[in-house]
Design a protein that fits this description.
Blueprint (H helix, E strand, L loop, with lengths): L17 H26 L7 H28 L39 H19 L9 H24 L4 H6 L7 H19 L15 H20 L7 H29 L4 H15 L8 H17 L3 H4 L8 H19 L19 H31 L6 H6 L1 H6 L9
Helix pairs in contact: 1-2, 1-3, 1-7, 2-3, 2-4, 3-4, 3-6, 4-6, 4-13, 6-12, 6-13, 7-8, 7-9, 8-9, 8-10, 9-10, 9-12, 10-12, 12-13
């Protein structure tokens, strides 16, 4: 038949799998949709004078990281290993040799070995690279310079995200190949790396004016709830799309994702009811996101009952982790550490407890299913390596940028608000 893709005649087996391709492109769009969702989720939690600044810190990642990923990030993450499983080479610099088409007789992409084009995988991975540094912004809310933020995420996406993605997701990455830890959709690559970076930059940046002395309330919780809904919706592409095809593994990941979020949101609300007598909308939204984070590394490895256990654990542990910033007196403005770092660590470790080899042969059975401590130790090793690397490099990067550009706005600008001070805009103009 005449292929509409290449304009050349092909036998049926010579063209890419259109069903898998459609799912991969749909999942890519869903994951990109999560970044505006994250912007609204964070934007509603800051004060009105800083709402647009928070939105822009998320949206700019869609611009900046697209560029870094196309130019150099993808090849560092998925290029042929330079040796030792540490970093990909420059073979695909500027996407050289990354094709959207199949040649005559070709049935799999030459880079990823899938029945979809390598470009489809590249763009799916791009959306993960975009949202990961955007997650960091919530911890730094209301006080970081926009120009410094842009430089930070551009550099961070190259020197932290791309190497970690190579370690965990590339076939020759050392965590995947040697440690044999698994991460279905980003517990280590996305959430631990972002959470560790957030913690590191917080220490350099310092707290907001009035932290622990003034009551700082979210200005628009309906906006936050809308953002949480968008995140939940997009997360189906994030997790189920990581099956890299329209298949049974994608179905399993879709189901466990829904369960993890639903259980964690419910448990978080119950925790609030027990402790304070009043469940909150922000609590349910935060719990649902924590559940989404925790189920992410295991979505394609655990059963629905495993997802219930992981969601319940996230609802309890991440809720209790909110106290970390008060105990250690650091200003994680929007609880990135409690939700993403703690949730990512929890979910990554619980893969070693609840994983089932019959669901996905890429992992050993977890502790609960007779696999012993083997997979749990592997998971813990990956957690430690990614945390230490991301925290250390992010701290150095923040210190260097602080010395060169300055990391935070002036006291006058902070009191006036980021929106007017840095962007000459206002979220709400109620009267002329």
């Amino acid at each position: 038949m005449l292929s509409l893709i290449t304009g050349r005649a092909h036998r049926g087996g010579d063209i890419l799998d259109t069903g898998d391709t459609a799912w991969m492109l749909t999942s890519s769009a869903l994951v990109l949709f999560m970044t505006p969702g994250l912007a609204l989720f964070y934007g509603g939690m800051v004060r009105a004078k800083n709402a647009l600044g928070m939105l822009l810190k998320n949206y700019i990642a869609m611009g900046v990281v697209t560029i870094t990923w196309v130019v150099i990030g993808y090849t560092l993450a998925f290029g042929p290993d330079l040796g030792g499983g540490m970093l990909g080479g420059l073979d695909y610099l500027g996407l050289k040799g990354v094709s959207s088409f199949f040649a005559e007789g070709q049935t799999k992409g030459s880079i990823h070995g899938l029945p979809v084009s390598d470009t489809a995988v590249m763009v799916f991975q791009m959306m993960f690279a975009i949202i990961t540094p955007a997650l960091i912004s919530g911890a730094l809310a209301e006080r970081m310079k926009f120009t410094t933020w842009v430089v930070f995420i551009a550099l961070w996406s190259v020197v932290v995200y791309a190497p970690v993605a190579h370690w965990v997701w590339a076939a020759d990455g050392f965590i995947f190949r040697d440690v044999k830890a698994v991460d279905f959709a980003g517990g280590t690559v996305v959430h631990i790396s972002a959470g560790a970076a957030a913690l590191a930059v917080i220490f350099v940046l310092g707290p907001r004016l009035g932290f622990r002395r003034e009551v700082i309330r979210p200005h628009n919780l309906p906006l936050t709830l809308l953002g949480a809904g968008m995140l939940w919706f997009g997360w189906f592409g994030f997790n189920a799309g990581s099956a890299l095809g329209a298949n049974g593994l994608a179905v399993n990941a879709f189901v466990t994702t829904q369960i993890g979020a639903a259980v964690a949101g419910t448990v978080w609300a119950l925790m609030e009811q027990v402790q304070h007598g009043k469940p909150t909308t922000l609590g349910f939204a935060s719990g649902a996101v924590a559940g989404l984070v925790a189920i992410t590394p295991g979505a394609g490895f655990v059963s629905p009952m495993g997802a219930i256990a992981i969601g319940a654990a996230a609802g309890v542990v991440c809720y209790l982790a909110l106290q970390i910033k008060f105990k250690f007196n650091f200003d994680d403005a929007l609880d990135v550490v409690a939700v993403h770092l703690v949730g990512g660590v929890l979910g990554s470790l619980l893969v070693g407890v609840f994983a089932l080899n019959e669901i996905n042969a890429a992992t050993e059975n977890g502790l609960l299913y007779g696999g012993g401590m083997t997979q749990l130790i592997r998971q813990a090793s990956a957690v430690i390596v990614v945390f230490v690397y991301s925290f250390g490099v992010s701290w150095v990067l923040a210190r260097v940028l602080h010395a060169i550009m300055g990391l935070r706005v002036s006291e006058v600008d902070e009191r006036r608000g980021i929106d007017l001070s840095l962007h000459e805009e206002q979220s709400y103009v109620l009267a002329e």
